[in-house]
Every structure is written in structure tokens, then in C-alpha cells.
Amino acid sequence: xxxxxxxxxxxxAAASFAGALVFAMLDLPAPGVHLPAAVEANMAASxxxxxxxxxxxxxxxxxxxxxVGVLLLALLGxxxxxxxxxxxxxxxxxxxxxxxxxxxAPLMVLVAVYLLWAGAIQPGGAFQAGAVLGAAAVLLHLxxxxxxxxxxxxxxxAGLAAGFxxxxxxxxxxxxxxxxxxxxxxxxxxxILLIEAGLTVSLGLILAGLFLALSRDSGDEA
Amino acid sequence: MAxxxxxxxxxxxxxxVPGLIIFVLAESRIRLxxxxxxxxxxxxxxxxxxxxxxxxxxxxxxxxxxxxPGLDLVVKADALALLFATLSAVLWLFTTLYAIGYxxxxxxxxxxxGFFSLCVTATMGIAMAxxxxxxxxxxxxxxxxxxxxxxxRGTPQAMRGGTVYLAYTLGGGALLLTGIVWLHGxxxxxxxxxxxxxxxxxxxxxxxxxxxFLLLIAGVGVKAALVPLHGWLPQAxxxxxxxxxxxxxxxxxxxxxxGVERIVYEVYGVEFAQSLDLLTPLAAxxxxxxxxxxxxxxxxxxxxxxxxxxxxxxxxxxxLGTALFGPVGTVxxxxxxxxxxxxxITLFFCAGNYAETLGVHKVSELDGAxxxxxxxxxxxxxxxxxxxxxxxxxxxxxxxxxxxxAAEAGMHWAGWVLWTSSVLNAAYFLPILWRAWAxxxxxxxxxxxxxxxxxxETLWLLLLPPLATAIMTIAAAVFADSAxxxxxxxxxxAAREYxxxxx
Amino acid sequence: MSTSLAFxxxxxxxxxxxxxxxxxxxxxxxxxxxxxxFGLxxxxxxxxxxAPDIALAEAAIGAGLxxxxxxxxxxxxxARRDSAL
Amino acid sequence: xxxxxxxxxAFLVRGLAFALLWWVLAxxxxxxxxxxAVGAVAAAAASLRLLPPVRRRIGxxxxxxxxxxxxxxxxxxxxxxxxxxxxxxxxxxPAILEISLALPPGAPRLLLVNAITLMPGSxxxxxxxxxxxxxxxxxxxxxxxxxxxxxxxxxxxLFGVARGGAS
Amino acid sequence: MTDPIAWLILLPLFWxxxxxxxxxxxxxxxxxxxxxxxxxxxxxxxxxxxxGGARTHAVGGWGAPLGIDLAVGxxxxxxxxxTQAIALPLAVYARAYFxxxxxxxxxxxxxxxxxxxxxxxxxxxxxxxxxYVTLELVGLAAVGLVAAGxxxxxxxxALRYLFAALVGSVMYLLGVALIYGAHGxxxxxxxxxxxxxxxxxxxxxxxxxxxxGLMLKTAIFPFxxxxPPAHxxxxxxxxxxxxxxxxxxxxxxxxxxxxxxxxPLAATAATALGLLGAAAIAWGxxxxxxxxxxxxxxxxxxxxxxxxxxxVFPLLAPDGLALQAGVMQAIAHGLAKAAMFxxxxxxxxxTGRDTLEGLAGVAGRMPLTLFAFGLAGVTLMGLPPSGGFLxxxxxxxxxxxxxxxxxxxxxxxxxxxxxxxxFRVLRQAFxxxxxxxPFHPVPRSMEWTAxxxxxxxxxxxxxxxxxxxxxxxxx
Amino acid sequence: xxxxxxxxxxxxxxxxxxxxxxxxxxxxxxxxxLTALLFGxxxxxxxxxxxxAMRLPSLVDVALTLALLAAIAGIAxxxxxxxxxxxx
Amino acid sequence: MSGGMxxxxxxxxxxxxxxxxxxxxxxxxxxxxxxxVMGSGAFLVLVGLAQRxxxxxxxxxxxxxxxxxxxxxxxxxxxxxxxxxxxxxxxxTLSATDDD
Amino acid sequence: MIEFAxxxxxxxxxxxxxxxxxxxxxxxxxxxxxxxxxxxxxxxxGFVLAGLALRAETxxxxxxxLLIWPLALAASAAVTYAIAQRAETLGIAPWRGEEEP
Lengths: 222, 503, 85, 167, 475, 88, 100, 101
Prior knowledge:
The structure holds eight protein chains of eight kinds. Chain C contains three helices and no strands. By secondary structure, chain C is mostly helical. Chain C has helices at about 5-25, 30-50, 50-85. Chain C has one domain (about 5-85). By secondary structure, chain F is mostly helical. Chain F has helices at about 1-25, 30-55, 60-80. Classes of the chains: A mainly alpha, B mainly alpha, C mainly alpha, D mainly alpha, E mainly alpha, F mainly alpha, G mainly alpha, H mainly alpha.
């Protein structure tokens, strides 16, 4: 298919690139700017106690806003090419697996809420919570409890967009008072929680949608 | 905006605005279109007249618009500009009349007249360009506006002709652009000036300037159809006759020749050009073109093609005049710019009449045409004699000045070139006249479209323009010494160029 | 060599090896499974880098979503090919 | 599920269970109850939606006995596999048995199927609607069937149901 | 309404989301109204920059390097104005184009909203990682737009595009990672004084990686392979958006990074970039001369025209000529290419054909559209008085003043090649139409938008001073 | 005692590396899937061990999540991907 | 040699492997995997290099979190496109000749 | 004492993990390997969790660790069943050989 010589050349080039990269990294002096210290110094005003969450939703919250947009975009793309007009009826599932899903899904919901809460003080947050929620939906779908998606209806669309919209409204409201996403320190914690709660639901739906809009029961067991 | 600025912009607008309106007119609105066309042409003529009066009274007309920092679009009306502008405005009026008659009933006339007007706008722009940048802008605009006219018929032949035309002119434009940018880099944005403005750079730049001159002349030389850049002109004769008239007399070829004059007189300055040894090679090229064009014309059976080669030859008279160092040659070149236009447009009008009325395209088919179409053939004969330099025609005046100029500049070989050309001219024009007047008419014309009705041999709109220009051909010679003749105006320009040392 | 260094080196080696096999295997199925394995190893690597947030995300997304997506896609891509055979 | 026919009792029980789980997850922190309540309610609601409550009584004693049985047998099962894996010759003689379940359909049967997998030597392979279960065994010589019956008894006792059907 | 900087990002996000909530295919009127507002915002911002010079907006109030800054200068203000100015007419165009409810319209307005938000955010970003996110936003929106029609050809094109975009951004991201490792910050302002020619090897590699990634996204030769199918296969309004704006975004980024942060390092690659640009001109034009599909011709022309942008790099100098040339080319080409795709879309709808051959006779039937195409073509050829002409003028002047004659030849040749392929279309249009060729009426608004865009690209050639003074205001 | 936990984790990791060989060997698709499952269950163990060794209690949350979600890939495999065609 | 450096190095190699994979691999699904490997490599470098002195740095961690979500989104979109292509044409690769 | 018990539990857990891996590598077919995975690994996890739970600082932390086990068990049982059932449906017969392969 690909001539051997070309392949060898590519691999050789890649190896030397990787080598150069590693050596260059080893050679680096300590950086002049030390951001962890700056993060540490501003934690008190950030509204949360966990540095990663502070960076994610406060210091660099704007990145996160856009990134939720990216996720929504991916779902739009998937819906545009993947979803059929009417979803097929859920396949009659198998009771043993169904039972597992029925037991596990509520637990996943609980864990998701827990992760959302945890984000304020320790690792966790809306992404992880949303991912767990999405996984619960995937599990329910795989076991034939939740049908696949067609074109989403208004309520589903509202759910998908809610998190992003809340984020956006907060950003806009704060901009009207000064700068984008510049939370007043007193309200920062509450606003971040509001945003994260919205994001958890929406991210869960979006991530679920990435699977449910694509999944086709044609691939199911006979 | 001062009145003077408004006036000069109005000259451009008098053809641009009608053109743009015509573009969006429905095909069926013939009367409105005709009105617009004629209104534009007449308005332009009047405006040019006003300017003429103003300039001879010492008024300054100019308009300046900065496009980029250090890059200005300058339009101004000086004597040289008006020489060309007047020619174009007058001939445009006739060509428009002619085209209205010529295209009667054919499709896509809105498009045709739209581009037609655009073409004249570009020509006016070229005439009144105040610096090389502006000159280039309108120069390329002219290329673009003429292309749709050349391919107007939409036949494969027309397409081929159009492609050749584009290849030559765009290529030339690229060379011109390079040269202009180069000069701009050296001097910044400088307007045309009597006596040129490059001499200020001093001798250090001699080599560069010689090379730039080559670029510039090659660039404008394409449109001026200097050998070996003339290949497009015979190909482009597939266009409808009014377009040929436009190409050969009103706009394109003239724009090239005019460009040579601007570059020599107002960029380099004729004396500085002489000091850089640029004029003699230019004269040599012109001479080769003159002889070669005449020679090729001899062998063309297609009437328009023969005329086209004739143009190749005649336009270089202008270039030759420019290259002859000395005021007399200058006058000869300048005045031939006008005279050649009047004569050549007559010829093309007539050729169009033959084709349109009788379906005659070839010299060999012209037998007896003089009896069937005496007025057309009369006009043709006058113009042809003028081309040969026969007395009492415009051609005689310009040839006389050119010969004197050659003698004054000490370039006697140029005189021989002119004589040779005259002989060749006679050799390819006289047979035509002989056939038309002396040979019997065939029983059936190739394709007789317009039947003869009494004394009017064809549509009066087709007949009037060549007769008018033929009369002008004679008038230009008879009234050469009057204050308003092209010759007088050319002498005025030459006087300014040579700072008053005028014979 | 301390235990933690050994752990890190072994983990890095396992990461590289699984990635290499993922890319080198011509069978999409095997590749998908190896990629899931790669994801799990990556979770461990994030844990070792004291980045539990990322480990959590990688675990949730890698195990819950990407795995299912990939396997579903493999099934869909193979279904057609098999029925065509 | 509308508010009207919300099974309040089941909701409370499950909500409480989830609240307990929350407490475990949150490391016993007390400042977390706000979201904890939300989480517990959400989880309970999801659970009710997915698993409508069925009236059933599970005795604590039976549960403890079942768990003990289950743990012990998981340990045995694990050890057995470990020994087989590490022995020079594993000495496998796999087979698939088919047994008819005596338990009624629903939770009891499903628990059995899941538990079988952790019992020594057996692995649930397919449960059909009419109550027959195919079981894969590692060594056909071992008394797997008998152990399954014992498991069945424990589960029946746990749920307080009679072992109906053929045995 | 306080700061137009941030509203330029939030507003499109708002209407994109609203369009999503409204449902598939809805939101055209909302989009057009919002775009009008965005035009106003962009113009206000440009006016602010002319009056007050460059400024920043500290998102979250933290300020770099802890927070993220948005920065606007002359260059970014120009790009913002351009983006809104192109998007507005295209939205009007798209509304008519999609009036028949083709499948591609289902998420068109939402995706377009996100695309514009991403572009605006990209032009305003002053943070390497934030740039990565905006690149992804733009990339995924663009891919979604290409794929939305759902035909096999479009999906294949979208995939190709997606891979290029993703690989490009990951390369960029690794560069960011190395920069962060080396300097501990990703803020452009903070980085600028830290990077010099004695930078450690990792920074050089980072610079190279980011450059390569962005080049892949810009589709400069030899990374152009994905562009023609994507731009040639998408619906006309999408092609217009992509060719006019999206590829410019990554070029803008290369330009900005090499001017602001990596100037000490960028000089080493300048000649190579210029050569790639020359190759792009040659290859893109050659392919445009060969293809039989009219839209592919326009798409290949984009490949060629992007080449001009890269000629800027070897000529960058304090005199600013080359920078002006690049910006002028980006703007002129943006307007012209939007017009061209819009015109081609009209022609294809009208004739029902997608080949050059099918165009026979359109000169008579759709003179306005053909005129728009011609005007846009004039800009591409670099003939006066278009914006493209000024760009080429400046490029030639820059090359001549620095004594780099070779680039002059490239520019000139490129213009002639462009003329050759543009006139392929015009020629065909002037041919006589076969008598039985079908002809479908097309909404006038579409013809006029194409014409307006083309005219704008023309008039640009007369209004360079304002643009250049804005460009100079920021730096 | 953290050293012990890390050592046990290292041992488990070594186990996993050995199991990679199983993934290579196959022969059926399901056999490879089992390796992935093994990685899941062992990964949970390693994570809790690391949580203790590195004094990062939140790694337990990671382990919990992993345990909760590990089944999804397996079920997806059984229901969607495994078609039992010739060898793989 | 710190843990950070080890994983940064591994990340560099992973990135390269993924890059080579994306270039050389034809089948779409595997190419998507290669892209993911590449992305993971970049993420590892980002965090590993920043933490080469051992201390945790929340900034790159947050960035990687963002990056992971973006990568998942892209992967899902790519899979959707690949599946659509397969459904329409039966192909699992991009052929060299489908443009123009 | 607790330290010791904890360490012992960890070792036992590691042993079961090891056995599970060996089983996965040595057992001849899909069903038997499932046995190894389902039983040995889960047991290993249980012991490890128990060992760590002994050492947990708070009750909640210990319970959290122990909570993982039933979750893993349920998941493992469900997956094992799913795969075994699929294998059955595809008609894969159990290994019949007397000797090791």
C-alpha cells in the first residue's frame, strides 16, 4: 500500500522529532512566571475552594464558556448527519442487563450530583458530573430502556441549551456591569454553582446525545 | 467640491453613469437606451468643449483622491489630455450613432452599450490621468471593458480573438505595473510634469531607469501594437465594426500610443530620455513596426484584417514622432494621434457598412461596390488617400511634420521609413479603390441585407458617421492653420514641452 | 530506583506500548479495545500526575462514553461489510 | 408518574437510602446537605421511574444470612479459580448445564443469575423467559447443580417467596 | 451596553443558541437583525481604536496572566469589521438560498452563529490557550456547516476537513504546552518580552508546531488538500463563509503571532513561507485551470489566493508595506470570494448544472450575477481599481524596495494565472446558450447580495486610506 | 506504610502489563474485551491504592466512578460490536 | 527525573506516534484513534511539563480538562461523519480521488 | 495490629488479582476466562478495599471504599452475563479438550 521506503522515512523522521522534543523539554529552565502562586493568592476571591475549579470557572471561565459551545457544536454536527427523522423503538432488552441498568442509573445520578458538589472543594465538577450523567443515559440506552434520538423536540433542545444559556446570561449580565464573567466575590460561589448545575444537566444531555443520536439499533444483537 | 473638480469628474460620469444605467435596462427599452447613449455622448462633448476653452485660457482642472498613504488617484485636464479627450469624445459620438444603427435588432444590446460606455470612460480616464498610477488604473479598466465587446458575438472565433486579446493586454499590463511600481518606489507618488520628473534622480539610477523604460514601453506597446507585440490586433477584428472602430481609433490603440507620449514627455522628459539613449531604440522599434505592418497588410484578403495591419503601421507614426527628438517631430506625432483616428475610424465604418449591407468581408468581393454604395466608397476613398498621405488630407499634414521632424532630429533614415510606408500604403489601398470603383459589380452580393432605397444605399445611421469623419479628414488639412485645428493644439503642447522654443 | 519512579516508568511504558499497538493493528475492533485499555492507563497516569480532576474526566468519558461510541461504531461499520460479504 | 400516585413510602425509603449513600460519598461532611438532598431526591425519583416499587418484605436476618452465604461462596469461588489458574494443570472440564429455575420471575431470578456468576465454578450464560437458565461450569465433575439449589433456597428465603415451578 | 469587544462574542452566541431553541431551519430573521447590530458594534470598535488606540478587556476582571484578556488593535478591528460586513450580506443571501428547506439548512443558522462567535473571539483573543479553544470553535462549526447537507461528497469533504482542523489544533496545542512549560504563561502580552532569539530549543519547536498547525488550517500548499472538496462541496453560502473568513482566521493568527510574540523566531521561516505561498499560487491556479466544476474552480482559486498571503512573510519590514499588502489582500479576497461563491451559487441554481459547460449563455440571462462574478474576478486578478490590485501593488512595491525581485515575478504571474481561470468562466458565460437548456428563476436578493459584495471588493481599492489608518492605529 | 500501597499498586500494574499480552494474543474479540475489563477492575484497585499512597482521597472518587461505569463498555461490546465473525 | 518529566516525555512520543498514525493510516476509525492518541500526548506534555518540579499546577490541569471535552466532542463528530460516509457509500476510508 | 491486618489483606488482594490475570492468560476459552475475571479479580478488589478501609481515617471514608465493591460486583456480574450470553447466542461451544492448549 504505502511503499516501504516512505514508511521508513516517515518513521525515522518521527523518531528524530520525538527525540528532539524530549531533549528540548529536558533542557528547559524553570519558567519565569509562576501561575500556581497567583492562583493560590486569588483563591479567596474566587468563590470556590478547589483551585482547578477556580481556574476553570473563574480565572479562565471564558475558555470554559466557549468550550461548552464546542461541545454543543459537535452535537449539532452529529444531529445534522447522524440522526434519523424518527427514532426506532427500543429493542426488547434482556432482563438481567436491564436490571443492572435500573439499579446503576440512579446511583449514577447521585454520583453526578456528588461530583457537582465536590467541584467546589475538591476534584470534581460539572464536566465530570455531566459525563457520569451522560454515561447513565448511554447505559439505559444500551439496555433498551431509553430510545435513541431523532430530531430533538423543544424540551430536549431547551435542556441541551440550558447550561450554555445560563452561562451566557451570567456572562452578559456581568458584562453589563463591567467585564465578562467578573463575578462579585460575594456572589461568586453561588453564581459558579448555578452555572455548574446548569452545565451538569446540559453536558449530560449533550454527551448522551452524542451517543444516542448516532447509535442505531441495526448494530444490536440479533 | 470646487467647480473645476466637479467638471472633470462630470466628464467621466457623463459616460459612466449612462453606462451603468444601461446595464440594468431591460433589453426591450430601446428608446431610453438610445436617449441615454446620445445624451451621454453629447454631454461629454460639451464638457470637453468647456474644458478646452478653459485650458486655453489657463484654467487648471484637477481632482485628487488618496487611495493609500502615498498613492493618489489624480485626474487633470492639461493640453495633452484634452487632445486625446477631444478626439475620443468626438469619435465616440459618431461611433455611438453608428453602433445604434449597426446593432439594430441584435441581442444583448444593453450589455454591449454598457461596456461601450465603460470603455469610453476608461479612455477619458487615460487621457486625463494625472500620474502613472491613475494611468494604469484606467488602462487596465479599458482592457476589461473591451473584452466583452470583442467577444460580443459569442462565436468560437470571437472567443479565440478575445482570449488572444486578453493574453496580450493583461501581459502588457503586468509589465507596465511592474515598471510603475518600480518608479513609485524610487520617487514616491509624483504627478506627470512637463519635461518629466525623473531627471531629478540623477545619473546613478541610469541603468534602472533604462530597464524601467523598457518595461513601461513594452507595457503600453502592447496596446499600441508595436512589433512584436501586435499579434492581438488582427485577431481582434472579429469584433463587430463599431468595436473595431473603438479599438483602432477611439480607445485602445490610441491609449497605447498616448501612453508612450506621456511616458516620454512627462515622466522621463524628452531631454532626459534622449540623454539616457532611449529615443533612438524607440524610434527603431517604431520604424520596424511601420514597415512590417504595411508589408503584412499587402497580403490580407480580409478587408478588416488589412485595415488592422494598416493600423499597426500607422499608429507607430505616432510613436516615431514621439521618438524624434525635437519639437517638429513631436508635433507630427501628436497631430497624427488625432488624424490617424479620424481616418481609421472612417475606414472601419465603411468596412462595417460593406459587411452589414452586402455581406462583403473580403477585398476580392469588393468589385463594383462603389456603384452599389457610392457614398460609403467615397468616404472610404478619402480616408484611404489620407492614409497614403495624399495632399489635402489630414494624413498629408502629419506626414509632412513627421518628415520635417526626422530631418530636424537628424534621423534621415526615419524619413525613408516614412516614404517606404507611404508606398506600401498605396500598394494595399489603391487596389481596393480600383476594385470598388472600376470593376463591375457581381450579379449577386454575398449577403445583401439592406436593400437599396433610392439614393440611400444603406441605413442612414450607418452612412452618416463615415461621411462626417471623411469630411473631417479633409477639414483637418484644409483648416490646419486655424486656431482650433488639431495641428494648432499639437503645437501648443509641443511648445510647452520644449519650453517655448517653437518654430 | 524508588517504587514511585518504577511505577511511573512502567506506566509510561505501558501507555506507549498500548498506544503503539492501537495504531499498529489493522483490525478496527482490536484497535478500539486497545484504545479503551489505553484510556484506562491514561487515567492512572493522570492520577500519578496528581490531577484527579482529569483522571475523573478521563475515567468517566473514556470508560463511559468513548468506549461505547467506539464499539458501537465498530459494530456499525462491520455490519455493512459483513452483510456485503 | 404524577404526584397523585407517587408511592410516598417507597420514595421515602429510597430517598433515605440515597441520603445515606450521599453521606458516605461526601465523607460525612455536614455542610453538603443542601445539594445532598437534591441528589437524593433526584436519584430516588430516577430509581422510582426505572424500578417501580413492588411490595416485598425483606427480613434483616435473612439478608444477613444471605450475605454471609454469598461472601463465603464468593471466596470459595475465587479460591477455586485461583487454584485452577495457578495449578500446573488446570484440570478443567467445562460444560454448559441447563437448569430450570424454581424462583418466580423478577428480582429474585435476576439476583440469582447475577449471584451465580460469583459462585464457585459457575457462570450464568442465558436466562430464557420460561425460567430456564443455561449455566457454564468450569468442571462438570463438581456438584455445581446442588450448590445452585442452595443459592436458590437462600434467595427464596430472602425475598420470602415460595420456590414454585419444577425443580 | 458597555464594551463592544465582549458583545461581539456574546451576541452571536446568544442568537446561535436562540436559533437552536427555535428549531431546525429557523432563525434567519433573528440572525440578520443581530448581524446588523454586530456590524454596528464592529464599526464602533473600529472608531474607538482609531480614536483611542489598542486596548484590552480583562475577562473576569483578573487580567493576564492569571485571567484571560481580550485585546483589540488595528489589525483585529479590521478583521472584525470585515467579518461582520461579509456575514451580513451572506445571511441575507442564505435566507433566500435555503428558502426551499434543503437538509443543509436545519442547523445552518445555529452553526453560523457559533462560527461567527468563534471568529470574533479568535480575532480578539490575546491568550494562546484561549486561541486554541476559539480555533476549535471555528473548526467544528465550519465542519458542521460543510457536512450539514449530508451527501456522500459533503461528508467525505467534511471528514477530510475535520481531520486537518483537528490535527492542526492538536499541533498548535502541543506548541502551547511547550510554551507554558517554558515560560509558565500563555498570555501574549506576558510572553512577548520573554521570547527572544536565544530562546530554548523547546520554544523553537513550539513555534514550529504552532506554525505548522495553523498552516494546516489555513490550507497553504502543501496542506491545501482538504480545502477544495470542502469549499467546493458545501452549499454556496457556506463556501462563501469558509473561503472568505475561516481560512483567513488562521492566517491572521500566524501573522499576529509572528508580529507580536515570535517575531525573533519567525524571521527564520519567512523565506520558506514565501516559497510555499508561491507554490500555492502555482498549484492552485493550475488546478483551477483544469477543473470542470465551476465551484471547484473557485475553491482552487482560494488555494491560489491564500498563497499571496504567505508572500507577505519574507517581506515583513518596519516600513509596513508588506503588512498592509497582506491585510489588504485578506480583506479584498474575503469580499471577492464571498461574492464569487454567492454568484456561483446563483448560477448553479439557475442552470441546474455544476460544470463550466453548463454556464453557456448565462451572460445574457443573468447579467447582474455574471457582472458580480466578473468584478470579484477583477479583484482576484489584481486589476485596478480593486482591493486586490492595491494588495498586489503593495506587495510588488515591498518586494522592489527590499530588492527581492523574485517575488515580483510571482505576484505578476499569479495575477495572470488568475485572469486565465477567471476568464475561463466568463468566456463560457458569453457563449451562446443551447436552445433547450433549462433555466430556473432565482430570487433577486441573491443576485444583489453577490453584486453588493463584489462592488465592495472593488470600492475597497478606492478607500485604502481609511483601512490603513485603522491598521496603523493599533500598532 | 505508603510504600507498601505503592508496591502493591506496582505489582498490579505489572499484572496489567502482562495482561496486555493477552490482548495481543486474542484469539477472539471477546478475549480482547476481557483484557479491557480486567484493566477496569484492576484499575479500580490501583486507583484506590494510589489514593492511599499519594494521600489524594479524591482518587477514590475516580475509582468509584470507574467501577460504576466500567460495565458500559462491556455491555456495548456485547450488544453492539461483537458479531462473532471468523476469529474476530 | 520527576514523574512529570516522565509523562511529558511519554506524551511527546505519543503525540508523534499519533501524528504518524494520522498521516499513514487510511481507515477512518483508526485514524480517529490516532488523533486521540495525539491529543492525549499533547495533554500529557501540557501537565507533565508544567509539573516537572513536582508541584501540582491547576492551570494546565484546567486546560487539559477543557481539551479533553473538546477531544471527545471532535471524536464523536468524526465518528458520526465516518459512519454516515460508510452508510452512504460503504467505504471506511477516504479515497484519494473523491475530490473533483 | 490493624496495620498488619491491612497489609495482609492487601497482599491477599494482590494474590487474587495475580491469579485472575494468570487465569485470563492460561484458561482456554472465553467462558473459562470469564470465570477467572469475574471471580478472582473481584475478590482481589474486595480484599484490597477491605485492607484500605481498615486504615481509613473516618467511617465515611471506609464505607466509601467498601461501597466500591458491590458496585464493581454488580457491574462485573452484568458484563460477564452479557458476554456469556452473547457467546451462547453466537453458538460458541465450551472448550472440550482434556489437556491444556
